[in-house]
Amino acid sequence: MGNATWRRGPASFDITQRFVASLVYDLPFGNRRWWLNGKPGSVKATGGGWQPSACSQFQGASPAALSWLGGSTIDPTNTITSVPNRLCSNKLNNPIPANWFDACCFVPHKKPLDPNNAGLYLPQKGNAGRNALITDGVADSDIGLFKNAPWGHKDRYRLQLRGEPSTFLIT
Question: Which long-range contacts (CB under 8 A, 24 or more apart) does 161-166 make?
Answer without folding.
Answer: 166/142
